[in-house]
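Crash report, auto-generated. Payload:
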Amino acid sequence: MRRLRLVALLVLAVVAAGCGGGGKSAQAGAEKGKPASLTYWATENDQEIVTIRQIVGSCEQKLPNVKVTVQKQAFEGAQQKFATAAQGGSAPDIMRSEVAWVADYASQGFLLPLDGYVSAQDRGDYLPSALAYDQYQGKLWGIPQVTDALALLYNRRLLKEKGIDQPPTTMDELKADIAKFAGGRTFGFYMRGDSYWLQPFIWAFGGGLVDVGGKRILVNDAQSVQGVQFAADLVKSPGVVQNRDFANDYDNAMTAFKTGKVAMIFNGPWSTTDVLSGREFTDKANLGIAPVPAGPGGQGSPVGGHNYTIYAGTKAPDQAYAFIQCMNSAQNQALLAQNHNLLPTRKSAYSDPKVTGNPLVAGFQAVMEKATARPVHPAGGAIYTDFTPAWQQVYAGRATPQQAMDKVAKAWQQLYKF
Amino acid sequence: MAATAPAVERVRPPWRESRVRRFVRVHWYAYAMLVPVTVVMLVLVGYPLARGVFLSLTDADARNVGNRFLPASYQFVGLKNYTELLTGREGNFYPVLARTVVWTGVNVLFHYAVGLGLALMLHRSLRGRTVYRILLLVPWAVPTYVAAFGWRYMFNGDYGLFNQVLQGLGMAPRAWLNGPVSAFVAVIMVNVWLGVPFMMVAMLGGLQSINQDLYEAAEVDGASPFQRFRHITLPGLRSVSSTVILLGTIWTFNMFNVIYLITRGGPYNSTSILVTHAYIKFFDQRDFAVSATYGVLILSLLLVFATAYRRVTRSDKEVWA
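Recovered output after restart:
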């Protein structure tokens, strides 16, 4: 009898706990009279997040019926994290998606189409190249926040020391300038083992990655391989820093650039706030921005950027759109430009004095004119999984460019299923 | 009747009880206590396992697995995934399996050897013995991901501690995590550092349970220290050793944190073991069916190993063979 009572008590306790918990979870975001509670997954870096929180705060004041919780996410791995969350059925209401992720998410049904929300006038205000990444299968899936491309960042003082007044504009000039640093205590260039950074070399020699329309893989064509070969030879020259750590080379390159150990790196607008905090750039004028060097086959830098997208399963779609519309206003884009030298995606933002008076933004605008758009395809974000290890093998001298690019082409064939 | 008499005598029916009723009356309490554990295990372990086996027989990936917003469109393909992996057509299974076996073997060997050595040294009365024991437990107490990040920073090619020391001594800095062999050695070092305390503590416990009189008797008979070690210590530690080696092998075989957090299976997939490869297949490449196949194969391999190992090490003195 005593045991029976004990067991009955236990069962009652478990049932009570279960029922109590179940009741609360039914509460959704948009209860009548209470503000909608939304989540924003912010993939902005440590510097940009400060301004983003300011922007979110000011938009919460403008829209009293919406409350947004900003959850900072590391950029690396965020694509998979959102996909896993959405697959499981509960993802954040607002997600900052990189350009390649939008088509990926849209093809799996994770995003809310925004055609009904964005007015024609608004559509016209966005830069067409930036908006193109949000369009997939005839619908609009996001609004662009910032656009960017890799540029050649250089330390004017270090280049002047070697007698170089203007940054290199062609690949041959780059090679010659780097050679001037050979044997010294500073280096000319720091090349990453990440294949995203390899793309300018491929486009400079007339190669390409994928022709989605023509259903062809271009990365192992003769010209692409020529570009990879040029890069592989370049990293062996004595004026280039020996990359000893592929996993941490982004941070190592930035540290080397900020401390004046290396004169030139490739990087994008997102890194400028961090660069300007380095001791070499306490005088902002010392940082130079130039387009990536051109080669015999052309010139190109990968266009990237980030977009505000809304989760298809959000409980408050109207409020979510109103909020991202506020976050993405011309004023807020100009604020991001002023604080972090990020490029706005609204034409109207470019007439704001905060943007026109910023020489770094002007420098990046010149870069954007020479940049190459990436094809919009759901597999677009996944290509780097095979591309980067292959470039690392070439970098380390364990494979020839042709062998490595053939392997990449084989892997992409399965990805794109041409 | 087998049950203990309760304080209040229940009225029993005058007719004879059936076997079933008697069984239920005697044992219901035990089974009632087992129900919560069983339910939890079925939900947390059984269901994902069954679903994993099911997925491994399909061609599910991110595009066709379906979700709240799109219907599922994957198909049943039978044992196709298994044949692709096991015949080597997929190309990755055997190299990664070989590497996992090497990883496990080298790690367990060092864990056991260093753990036993440290246990022997700490078994005698030393001054400050307690301090040493506590310090040597630190690697085990620190969460693996914290340790992994710490070591990863130390291995950093440009600014890490090891290269700074090398440069300070006038030697050339090494690219620790860039080369395949170098990176493999690096992660083995970290895993050995993490795993030794557990082995050491287990061996210490085992050493303390060996009868000290045996040592004295052997010394009187003129046995050398090595002979004493070989004929008294090792046999005395046999049951502890076999258990910790089995546990260590299974844990090391599935040690995900160290490799994923330090090298992510790189550089160019040269340090990936079966678990990290399966994870990357699932989360990065989103090929759920192949990842589930890897999972089932890992489980089967470990089950076979554990069964064979138990058979081989069984002895009459084993408590739970």
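Post-recovery validation: The mean pLDDT of chain B is 88.
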